[in-house]
Specification:
The chain is α+β, with helices and mostly antiparallel strands. It has three helices and four strands. It has a two-stranded antiparallel sheet with strand order 1-4. Strands 2-3 form a two-stranded antiparallel sheet. Helix 1 packs across helix 2 and helix 1 runs antiparallel to helix 3.
Length: 137
């Protein structure tokens, strides 16, 4: 006497075309905003340190001034810099923050336009696996 055992397995996979490119686009734009956000925060911190007349010989103040000097030199002398009692208001730093925010936005939009792919129809792939075992009793 023989008995036949038949097993069928069905797997369904849904693939969304372009999802990898959308993830890349999202990550790239996040990186742009992160880098420019750090720059903006450093410039804002510099503005605050100058406003409270922080000691420029302090290691943290000196570090922030050195880093931001590199990004603020194109804006040096753009506007008058009011000061009183050691406190300084760097108006050019505010303008630099606006310009860098616009640059970040332009880079982010360019990445999005070049690399983003809209969602398309989902492809459904079905795979059927059959196996037959013959057993004799």
């Amino acid at each position: 006497m023989s008995s036949e055992l038949k097993t069928t397995e069905v797997r369904s996979v849904q693939r969304e075309p372009g999802s990898e490119q959308r993830v890349f686009t999202f990550k790239a734009t996040q990186l742009v905003w992160l880098l420019f956000g750090i720059l903006e925060a450093l410039i804002a911190l510099r503005i605050v340190l100058k406003l409270i007349a922080a000691n420029p010989a302090s290691p943290i103040a000196a570090l922030i001034y050195r880093i931001t000097d590199l990004f603020l030199w194109p804006f040096a002398g753009l506007t008058a810099t009011p000061s009183a009692g050691g406190m300084v208001l760097e108006l050019s730093s505010f303008i630099a923050m606006i310009i860098y925010a616009l640059i970040a936005w332009a880079i982010e939009r360019t990445i999005w336009v070049i690399f983003y792919r809209p969602r398309g129809p989902i492809e459904k792939v079905t795979e059927t696996i059959s196996s037959e075992d013959h057993k004799q009793l």
